[in-house]
Write a structure and sequence with these properties.
Elements (H helix, E strand, L loop, with lengths): L2 H7 L10 E9 L2 E8 L6 E5 L1 H6 L10 H4 L3 E3 L4 E3 L6 E3 H9 L2 E2 H10 L4 H8 L3 H7 L4 E2 L1 H21 L1
Antiparallel strand pairs: 1-2, 2-3, 4-5, 5-6, 7-8
Length: 166
């Protein structure tokens, strides 16, 4: 696409589908069940904990301690965002998708262990957790975000080391 094409259409196609939400519902404090219409997670339905976003951005301060306000979540802009009652309380689908990509469930954690040929004992030492905690992460449910990010970082570092050695 040339610069002229961008100016004529006003759109730049990067080839990456933009996140769009087909359906959303509140399923707990700071948790939304999201059905993705498009984007990297298109076609999936998953529970996303948006607490890291609510706690990080000043604009979401009203949602931090008001469960009734959080319960007003609804889709807007044809699935491009979620909004809550109140002034300027909107969260883009892209932002929610980013936080969803930083989460890991027990099945994904089990695949991480297998991919990296880690025993539960080795994973405990690597992640600074007890062997018992690693066992808990293999039971159905979410893996703590800090552990998921550590797993993603471990694999990124291992990949970089492999490419540097090649």
């Amino acid at each position: 696409m040339s610069e002229t094409d961008i100016l004529d259409t006003g759109v730049l196609d990067t080839g990456v589908p933009m996140a769009r939400i087909a359906a959303a519902r509140v399923v707990g404090p700071s948790h939304l069940e999201i059905t993705w219409a498009a984007g990297n997670r298109g076609g999936r339905t998953e529970t996303v904990d948006v607490a890291p976003l609510i706690g990080s951005y000043k604009v979401y301060r009203p949602l931090r301690s008001d469960a009734a306000l959080f319960a007003t979540a609804r889709l807007i802009d044809e699935g491009d965002a979620i909004a809550w009652d109140g002034p300027d309380l909107e969260m883009s689908a892209d932002l929610i998708e980013t936080i969803a990509e930083q989460e890991m469930d027990s099945a994904e954690f089990a695949r991480f262990l297998k991919r990296n040929k880690l025993t539960q004992e080795a994973a405990a030492a690597l992640l600074g957790r007890s062997r018992r905690q690693i066992g808990y992460y293999l039971n159905p449910g979410p893996v703590p975000r800090i552990v998921a990010l550590a797993c993603f970082g471990y694999e990124a570092l291992a990949a970089r080391r492999r490419s540097d050695a090649a």
